[in-house]
Amino acid sequence: MKSDDNPMSKAHAAPRCTAKSKRTGKRCKGPAVKGWTVCRFHGARGGHGPGKANPAYKHGMRTREWQEMRKAISDLVRMEREIEDLISD
Questions:
Q1: 12 closest CA partner among 32, 36, 41
Q2: Which residues contact 69 (CB under 8 A, 6 or more apart)?
Q3: What is the DSSP secondary structure assignment for residue 51, as one 8-state letter?
Q4: Do 69 and 40 fall within a single domain?
């Protein structure tokens, strides 16, 4: 039987998970999820999504969009103060 005939050959050739055990200090032997460095048991594709899908979502004032908006407003206020300083001199 050739190694090409074995359907598990791709799974055995996959990169291994980089997580280490606290107790033994040895690395996990599971295959890493594609695009991740850890296996599904150690956090690949885990967690909640952003926005209203996240259970910690309350009012949206700390979302990425609001943070960008506050930064843009702060930049505008800073520019306005600089213009006032130039005019008053």
A1: 32
A2: none
A3: G
A4: no
Q: Does 35 share its domain with 11?
A: yes
pLDDT one-digit tens code per residue, 14-42: 899 999 998 999 999 999 988 899 998 99
Chain position carrying tokens 């040895």: 26
Q: Tell whether 74 and 85 lie within a shared domain.
A: yes
Q: pLDDT tens for residues 38-58?
A: 998 998 887 787 778 888 888
Taking the C-alpha atoms of residue 50 and residue 4, their distance in angstroms, rounded to an integer, is 42
Whole domain around residue 54: which residue ranges? 48-89
- Exposure pattern of 24-63 as b/e (b: 16+ CB <10 Å)? eeeebebbbbeebebbeebebeeeeeeeeeeeeeeeeeee
Q: How many domains does the chain have?
A: 2
pTM of the complete model beyond 0.85: no
